[in-house]
Amino acid sequence: MKNILIIGATLLLALSVMQCGAPQTSDNMITHTVYFKLKHPKGSEEEKAFIQKAVDLGAIETVHNLRSVKEVSPKNNFDFGLIMQFEDQAGYDFYNNHPDHVDFVENVWKKEVVDFMEIDYVPNE
Amino acid sequence: MKNILIIGATLLLALSVMQCGAPQTSDNMITHTVYFKLKHPKGSEEEKAFIQKAVDLGAIETVHNLRSVKEVSPKNNFDFGLIMQFEDQAGYDFYNNHPDHVDFVENVWKKEVVDFMEIDYVPNE
């Protein structure tokens, strides 16, 4: 009996500590993705600075699991992508209207991005 | 001492059973995504049948973490998405050339999809 209690407690501890990657794989969230092409030369400092500013948006409270990616398919015109998740539409709206995001769009995105496409998705169930 | 062994064994068991979501969050893989619009009416049996056939491609050995998603942004023309991951380009090529995939593309995709875009990405590091 004692051993069963120890096993149970250990499993609970393992589950709570590991959380089994749930925040990284939240398939129930809204995933917001945007793929884009910059006006900067490939590998330039300006390119790096843009990516860093985009990644910094991950600090907005409702943004989860922000990832910066390189687009590698030759079948479209984009070079980079930004992927993030929101728990719900309210969280998405909070991000969209956040001063840091608005400032980024107006003063960085619109000046440095030459082409982009936004794709958002939820599980198809 | 016996209890420590039990705790250790239980933790190992938990780790091996749960795998901590790693396969779902393999950020080092190539992520292949395709967003598309079908010719079928929304919610139709034909639509469901198409999605099922697409999801069935997840059985190909090198496909990981296949997900069927609904596109929800009004900023593009797509209604659905299919997301999958490959460990490397060889795995991607294996999928592309697999008879089940070739058959799907020729006899299902080309006949039922009216618009699509493919986007593939890897981590930007």
Automatic annotation (TrEMBL), chains A, B:
Gene3D superfamilies: 3.30.70.100. Residues 1-22 form the signal peptide. Keywords: Signal. The keyword Signal applies. The keyword Transport does not apply. It comes from the Bacteria. Residues 30-121 form the Stress-response A/B barrel domain. Homodimer. PANTHER family: PTHR33178, STRESS-RESPONSE A_B BARREL DOMAIN-CONTAINING PROTEIN. This is Dabb family protein. It comes from Membranihabitans marinus.
